[in-house]
Request: fold
Amino acid sequence: MSELSTLARPYAEAVFKIAVESKSANEWSNMLEFLSVVIQDKEVATIIVNPKVSQDKLTQLLLDICQDQLTKDGANFLKLLVQNGRLILAPQIAELYESYKADHEGYVDVEVISAYALSKEEQNKFAKVLEKKLDKKVHITTSVDKTLIGGFLAKAGDTVIDGSTKGQLQQLAKKL
Reply:
């Protein structure tokens, strides 16, 4: 995974630079997300790795699939990825792009996994605490994992805050 991220980084940086200059960051987010979904489709993925399918045919097929979802610059980016044999990197490019965008706009996406569903009020309180800790505006997405037993697990980029009962029990087991 880290190797793919390393290969995807220059593309994500270039796209982000273009998006900032043209003030089309959200538009690029949508295009990259759509392209990632298309690339991850099983039937499309099979065609991508098929050596009998030429680059021209692959490019035309993807442009037909993406039709109204890509701007002229987005279509050119797609052609570049096909030409360089880097189409498989689209999901990593989209992920890195979103990271650059969040950093540029001064927020961080935080995934909160809890043992039970959080109410809106709990989510708001949690967001305020995280904003102080991370010194950025926070966008929270939540999910439930009953195996945590109790508490929560918060992931913000490379930062993980483990406040789960399961995590505390694992730490205790290591100490013993």
Remarks:
- Residues 107-175 form one domain.
- The chain has two domains: 2-102, 107-175.
- The radius of gyration is 20 Å.
